[in-house]
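A quick word before the example. In earlier lectures we treated sequence and structure as two separate objects. From today on, think of them as two lines of the same record. Here is Citramalate synthase written that way.
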Amino acid sequence: MAERIYLYDSTLRDGAQAQGIDFSVADKQAIAAALDAFGIDYIEGGWPGANPTDDAFFGALPKTKTAKISAFGMTRRAGRSASNDPGLQDLLAVNTPTVCLVGKSWDWQVETALKVSTSENLRMISDSLAHIRANGREAVFDAEHFFDGYKANPTYAIEALKAAHEGGANWLVLCDTNGGSMPSEVYRIVSAVKAALPDANLGIHCHNDTEQAVANSLAAVEAGVRQVQGCINGIGERCGNANLIAIIPTLMLKMGYDTGLTPEQLTHIGELSRLVDDRLNRAPNRHAAYVGSSAFAHKGGLHVSAMNKDSRSYEHIDPALVGNSRLILVSDKAGRSNIVNRLHQMGIEVADDDDHIGELVKAVKEREALGYAYEDASASFELMARERLGQLPRYYELQSYRALNEYRLDAKGRAFDVAEATVKLVVKGEQVMSVAEGNGPVNALDAALRKALTPHYPQLNAMHLNDYKVRILTPSDATAALTRVMIESRDDQGRTWNTLGVSHNVIDASYNALYDAITYHLLKAGV
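And the structure line, produced from the sequence above:
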């Protein structure tokens, strides 16, 4: 039987301390529900009494199926009894099954930050944990600054753990609070703690200040800890916390531990990662281990050729195990294998020895040399491929377009812009002209195209612009520079696709990207 590792998520507390992150009560409730559904063992909801958001969250605790909600706080204050400490009273009042208390384990911190004696600190730890246990709660002790404290004074650091253990703590969690420890140090120190407290349940809590929080957490597991604390996507104060999204599959797939998750639950880890990013209104990290959209992306022709023979050539696991999928990129690094594989992924059947493949490889390399980037615009690549294979319908013919931007002053001398676009098209044999205004010439051009096309293709009502980016490719040319426009579009089902255009004229580049976006949508709509 594989040994059990317990997963303790602190996204809602430690993760919320990151700069730029401000969870609402609804955010915390939604994330807690997702963590529970995924199968996390412990969810640290926040610090009762610290702020109105945490108070509101604990005031209406979500009902969980398997996860235990944990309330976070600190040991009693000096000079007070545990039963008369306001902070501990706040923790017990929220009635969570688990309470996590943080206490000092570095003698220097005790004397400089708390300004109490080292012996009083030990009593504060023991009394507080005993009080939590006496009230029927599971008690977790976070030994703050443990690794720095151990390196400075190993005897006192161990005494702090023993005080918590004697107080009845169910878990002793070793914290690399400053995030400066090395994996070899973590392994050595955890091994020493395990020898000193052989009957204690140990946990690990790492920060990422040297980009080693995941490595340090895994080293601690190898040395004997059985609870791992961290945050979804590694968010947290300063440089972040240990990233549970990377730790969980590594524990299961690489190290053979039981995390309480089934293989089927593990396939939803990418959904959990994206849900937190959505709540934070930020784009997911495409290069994130296991779950990123580029985690199993292959660009080099040599790589793809080897992948065709055996996927283990350049993939450390089957992407399906974590709910991800392989992506064959098309770029100027591409060979025939890239093109064939990408076409097959797009549902375009073509023989490996088809003459069109060589033409496509050449076209991709030539166009990328001009500034195109098909690895980020797969929709435009598919349209180019289908056109060369004779599989692309022509939904309309452009005769001309004009886009104007006029700067005006009103009667009171206030300045404002007016953008207007005119398009002349042939749609289904009918000549159509439309004029539209917009927020800038590109928006006006988009509006004019839709005005002309929608009566003939009502499917365009379901297409929306998601993002618009302009990149200057030749900055030394100043205002005459070559530009690349990238447009991300979406439909009413939430599907997204990227198209691009390249030109010295940003309006022309925008039109080409818009043309591809419209054509791709109509193609996928079955028009």
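Notice the following. The chain has four domains: 6-279, 297-386, 396-456, 461-527. We will return to this example when we discuss secondary structure assignment.
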